[in-house]
Prior knowledge:
By secondary structure, this protein is an alpha/beta fold. Helix content is 38%, strand content 19%. It is built from 18 helices and 19 strands. The protein has helices at 18-34, 59-78, 127-130, 153-156, 161-168, 185-200, 290-308, 322-335, 352-365, 375-385, 389-411, 421-426, 447-463, 472-476, 496-508, 513-518, 523-535, 537-541, and strands spanning 3-10, 39-41, 85-94, 97-106, 109-115, 136-142, 145-151, 172-177, 204-208, 210-213, 216-219, 223-225, 231-234, 241-248, 263-269, 314-317, 340-344, 368-371, 414-415. The strands form 4 sheets. The protein has a 7-stranded mixed β-sheet. It has a 6-stranded mixed β-sheet with strand order 5-4-3-2-1-14, covered by helices on one side. The longest helix is centred in the last third of the chain and has 23 residues, at 389-411. The N and C termini lie far apart (69 Å). The mean pLDDT is 93.
Amino acid sequence: xxxxxxxxxxxxxxxxxxxxxxxxxxxxxxxxxxxxxxxxxxxxxxxxxxxxxxxxxxxxxxxxxxxxxxxxxxxxxxxxxxxxxxxxxxxxxxxxxxxxxxxxxxxxxxxxxxxxxxxxxxxxxxxxxxxxxxxxxxxxxxxxxxxxxxxxxxxxxxxxxxxxxxxxxxxxxxxxxxxxxxxxxxxxxxxxxxxxxxxxxxxxxxxxxxxxxxxxxxxxxxxxxxxxxxxxxxxxxxxxxxxxxxxxxxxxxxxxxxxxxxxxxxxxxxxxxxxxxxxxxxxxxxxxxxxxxxxxxxxxxxxxxxxxxxxxxxxxxxxxxxxxxxxxxxxxxxxxxxxxxxxxxxxxxxxxxxxxxxxxxxxxxxxxxxxxxxxxxxxxxxxxxxxxxxxxxxxxxxxxxxxxxxxxxxxxxxxxxxxxxxxxxxxxxxxxxxxxxxxxxxxxxxxxxxxxxxxxxxxxxxxxxxxxxxxxxxxxxxxxxxxxxxxxxxxxxxxxxxxxxxxxxxxxxxxxxxxxxxxxxxxxxxxxxxxxxxxxxxxxxxxxxxxxxxxxxxxxxxxxxxxxxxxxxxx
Length: 571
């Protein structure tokens, strides 16, 4: 059987940085060639970064992407990499409009181009808005082996190019991906890749992006399976990685001819076989456990948002509570303690234990810590405006928001909002107060998961012989906004375990009143929670972006009208 040495380059690209992304492509191709690879595949739209959203509709950007791609073959030859077959994702533009494309490059030329066939139009994807679908199937024969290519959504839908390649016959199918992270998606993804390899009747090599892009995080998890769906190699999650392995393939499987609905292009490539250094057995990394996976997603999302947007530091309010403690710990892991500034902003209602827990958090992690008392600011507003009740409570949060934004303007920090998904769902936050910020790291994390993450992070630190970053008291004490004497979250909200269960069904699954009753929730509880969720839509629209980890995050995933009188309630 012919043997092929394949490299999958799992990389972190940046949207819009065409020169920087091209440099990444060249660097990974050099590393692949040094390892003796004959074929290297890079992710979906790696040359432009992904997703480019409405940049795809801007002709100047699409033309620049095409120019960057057209320059790449000569750059590869100049680098001594001309014999490599390089398959790279980019944004193309032709008479049909923008294309989500892959180029097959070898010996100084673009051998062929593949245009994504299935365009997703759900969740965070709007590709019908941007791209025209393709119907060309390139098949390149190299060293007697027939290789095809598809892009991401092409394997998530039935039929289409995978089935067509199955009819044609292939030795290897490459799949270029920009597949965002969601909890437990690696399990679904692995099963899908295995099933599609069986459908194609050929091994499948799946290469994915890694890194953060606004609210999305790409977790890598690149893999290779054989034609039976058996896993051969798997890359780690959330880190850049070059996965190199040898494949023993039968050769010459492709048949001449056509497939209904597609135009088939056959290419015979000549290439000098490279020297192949001895290769260690391919790595096979297991998917991370749930809490570790989520933590890495949050850490990656925050770190890349800060770095790619040119910030050097972040600032957040440290209340001594669980949410700000978890956000601070994520920030320290993502950026280093020296780039994190925590500010305690006590009012007359702030307890001594909360002030102490905030200081303890700073000492445990080594982040910068300061205290800015807000009592006099609050009194100025309360006295001049005669505020009482909820208005007095909210002005405390708004004084804290103003303080953080002032420090941001003064010192260039990015302000982090510390609210969680549960609070955001029911509107348990103060607009222009604790909701201020440029990024919200735990925006898509339910409250009960926040506690689990805190315990997990401390356990990991203790296993590694390090100081647990999150004060135990912040985890164990009853949560409170501390905006009035003796206030607890339970004064206004149901128990968080119950609340998160209802929200999971209502928000994530879009279940109606009857379905929620059937699930075992009390009618009055359903009405109370649903009313809070529906009334808070205007707040959510004004909340900062934050890392998506669930199937349906607020924002791009869940789009509901603000002006809306429909309510889920008893008949």
